[in-house]
Specification:
Chain lengths: ~80, ~325
């Protein structure tokens, strides 16, 4: 599984990345977490509200700081 | 009702003497703070709940099919309800342009969205009354619409920086939400905003209360009254670097209008604080050539200055 956190470096984006990291550790799943701050890449995903979350190339959350529990629920689907 | 409760606390419970400068300042401070916080909680909650029904994706879809002038009008109106934060300004700008929203229409959105925001509206309504709040919304919309039309007419599309994405804006969709999701989002959002502004609100109202009680009336009339034509452009320029403090600035301005600052000048100042923001320019510089950024700031700035003069002539 590959998780990408999209954000231009605002505090909210960092918060989301941190929450995701904690959740992944707690779930003990093997994933690759990548922080994407390159604006070209973000636009490529068609994202207009950061922070956004991309799992395996699919945008799953937009403009929202997910808590670690919200994130767990999201990837459980 | 709130007013008499505060009067009771200040004059009867704590037994401060009525008519004294200090007790009047304390009364003023308590009343305004409680009123503003109540308004902030209710209005931000309602606004963010409404916002869950709008997304930049939907707004973009609507705007990419619109004609010139109706597009500008719609963009300014949608700017009020579409969630916007200056850190998303760049992806939003590019997303709009890539989807074929005209540059002028995009600018109408980009001007209205930060200028007409819920915090500024609460502060204006609570401290100046609903008339000034409505005037603010109305002139903000008109400035956004006209700025967009002017920038559209200038044909400056070549000043947008090229981006290198291969397959832009293909498929990001908002996630479907239940009523519970929406309420939870609104609650979280309200909390976030309150956390970010509460200190500024208290400091602003505190200073405002002090000015209200201690600074003589008409103290500033000589410098910032109607007759000083330089006051409006000066207020506009000073407002640009103050973006993050809109919550603290408005109570101060409210107190200053009692001391002789003309209403149009005050409006121009508050519009510059919310609508023109230095950090946002720095972010937007990544996708706009400097010339386009200067055009953007000048057009909106001139709009704000004209509005200031106009209301100095009309009001009071």
């Amino acid at each position: 599984m590959k998780i990408e956190v999209l954000g231009t470096g605002c505090p909210k984006c960092k918060q989301l990345a941190a929450n995701v990291e904690i959740a992944v550790k707690e779930l003990k799943i093997s994933t690759e977490i990548v922080k994407v701050s390159d604006i070209d890449k973000i636009v490529e995903y068609g994202v207009m509200m950061t922070p956004a979350l991309v799992v395996d190339g699919k945008v799953v959350s937009l403009g929202k700081v997910l808590t670690k529990d919200e994130f767990k629920k999201l990837i459980a689907k | 009702m709130l007013k008499s409760a505060i009067d009771w606390v200040v004059y009867d419970l704590v037994k401060m003497q009525k008519g004294r400068l200090l007790s009047e300042a304390v009364n003023f401070f308590l009343y305004d703070t409680i009123k503003i916080f109540l308004l902030l909680i209710i209005i931000i909650f309602v606004v963010s709940l409404i916002r869950t029904f709008f997304s930049p994706e939907k707004t973009r879809a609507i705007l990419s099919h619109k004609q010139k002038y109706s597009g500008n009008i719609l963009a300014a109106l949608l700017g009020i309800v579409t969630p916007f934060c200056s850190c998303s300004a760049v992806p939003l700008f590019l997303g709009f342009i890539e989807a074929g929203v005209p540059l002028g229409t995009t600018f109408s959105f980009l001007v209205a969205s930060p200028m007409i925001n819920e915090v500024a509206l609460v502060m204006l309504w609570g401290l100046f009354g609903y008339k000034i709040a409505l005037i603010y919304i109305g002139s903000g919309l008109i400035i956004a619409i006209i700025s967009g039309i002017v920038i559209g007419k200038l044909k400056v599309e070549n000043l947008v920086e090229k981006i290198n994405s291969k397959n832009p804006s293909c498929c990001a969709q908002g996630v479907t939400q239940t009523v519970k999701d929406r309420v939870l989002f609104a609650r979280g959002y309200t909390k976030d905003i309150l956390k970010a502004v509460w200190l500024y609100v208290i400091i602003g109202i505190g200073l405002g209360a002090w000015i209200h009680g201690y600074v003589p009336a008409d103290f500033l009339a000589k410098y910032a009254g109607k007759d000083n034509w330089l006051a409006v452009p000066f207020a506009t320029i000073v407002g640009i670097p103050l973006y993050s403090n809109a919550a603290g600035v408005i109570p101060l301005v409210s107190a200053l209008t009692e001391k002789g600052v003309a209403m149009g000048t005050a409006l121009a100042f508050m519009m510059a604080v919310t609508g023109l923001s230095l950090p946002e320019f720095l972010i937007l510089r990544r996708v706009m050539k400097l010339k386009l950024l200067i055009i953007f700031v000048s057009v909106v700035g001139i709009g704000i200055i004209i509005t200031g003069y106009l209301f100095n002539l009309i009001l009071r």
